[in-house]
Each structure stands twice: as structure tokens, then as C-alpha cells.
Amino acid sequence: MKTPASKSLGKPRRASKSRRPGRPSGDATDQRERLLDAALHHYTSHGVTAASLRGIAEAAGVTPAMISYYFGGKAALFDAVIEERLLPVVGELRGHLETLGDDAGALIDGFVRGMHAAVERHPWLPTLWVREVLSEGGALRELLVTRIAEQIPRRLAEAFAHAQQQGRLNADLDPRLLVVSLIGLTLFPLAAAPLWHQIFASEDLDSAALQRHTQALLERGLEVDHVR
């Protein structure tokens, strides 16, 4: 599937004398957005460490100098991708969960639905998560601990612990590991979807099927309905 980053990009227009210095024109702003998309696609495909300005520039159809013009260098480009592409997705999910109150069941269901919705809008998320968070030396590990953990994982764990204290959640569960389980039941299977399609020779194991299965598993576990 073609992405905006795959389109050939032209040179940005020169700033007119009437425009204030440092304020990009509309075309320049679009150019910058396309470069961010190209970098994100390159990180997902090749990894952050292996990514180079030259490789990103080639993917975007520009010269490395163009990326330096807009971002100043490789580190600044990576920081911009985090701030303007990844963290807004985290914010979307956090905002969705905040509307659900402190009901454990609603939060669990909301996390599953919210994660699938996020991946539908941002299909790069599962692959980037596996490559840069789970892999040893991943470039996003520190970000998870220092900035993302407080926004979603720790808040969910606190809500689950409170629900246990109120007798509204299975006391045998560890609230922290319940968060880990939710991530394991959503992001990981989505990242491995092409593999499951090959193993089971079936294309019907799509995101909707996975969401239904995950919700049924979390709501009813392995219980069997007996017909009387």
C-alpha cells in the first residue's frame, strides 16, 4: 500500500520576502509532514539504529540535505517522529481510557477496542513496538519507561488494584501483569498477523476476528456453555 512518504517530493518554495523568517509556507509544512512519514516508515521497515538520513531521503525522494534543512540531523528527526507521530497515538488511547472511569471491565474492553482502533489508524504501530521496544537495544525502550508507562500502563494497574480492593476484580490476578496480558493479547498478535495467515492458511484472521476472540477470552475465559 502506498503511503504519503512514497510520493516524489519536490524542493520547498523559497520564503517570500513578505513572510516572517522561520515561519514555513504551506508547501514547506506539507514537505515536513511527508518527511516525518518517510522516517517513520523507514524506522518500521529497517529499525531506528539502522536508519540513515540517506536511506530516509531516498525513500522520500529528496536529498539528505533537505532533511537536515528541516530537522537539523538524525537525532532531531527521530525526536520529531516521537513527539509528532508516536506520542499522539499514546495520547489518543489514554484519552479514550479516561472517558471510561474506573470500572475494570470497561477499561479492559476499552483497551482492546482502543488498541485495535489505534492500529487501524496507524498500522505501523505493532511492528515498531516489537522492533524498538521488545528487541534488546530497542530505541524506544527508555521512552516506554520514562514517558509512556505513566500515561497508560501504571494508570491501568492502579485502576485494577483499586477494583480488587473493592471486590470487583478477581483477587488472584496481579494488576500489573493484567496490563502486560492486555498488551500481549493485542499488539503482539497484530504484529504477527502475516505469520498466522500462513500457518493456518486463512485470511479471515483479521483485526476484527482477533478483537472478537480477545474480548470473548477476557470476558468468559475457557468456560463451556452447556445446553440443557
From TrEMBL:
Domain HTH tetR-type: 29-89
Alphabetic keyword roster: DNA-binding, Membrane, Transcription, Transcription regulation, Transmembrane, Transmembrane helix
Biased composition (Basic residues): 10-22
InterPro entries according to UniProt: DNA-bd_HTH_TetR-type_CS, Homeodomain-like_sf, HTH-type_TetR-like_transc_reg, HTH_TetR, NicS_C, Tet_transcr_reg_TetR-rel_C_sf
Keyword Mitochondrion: no
Ranges annotated as DNA-binding: 52-71
Region of interest: Disordered: 1-29
Transmembrane portions of the chain: 177-196
Tagged with keyword Transmembrane: yes
Pfam family, one: TetR_N
Name by which UniProt lists this protein: TetR/AcrR family transcriptional regulator
Organism: Litchfieldella rifensis
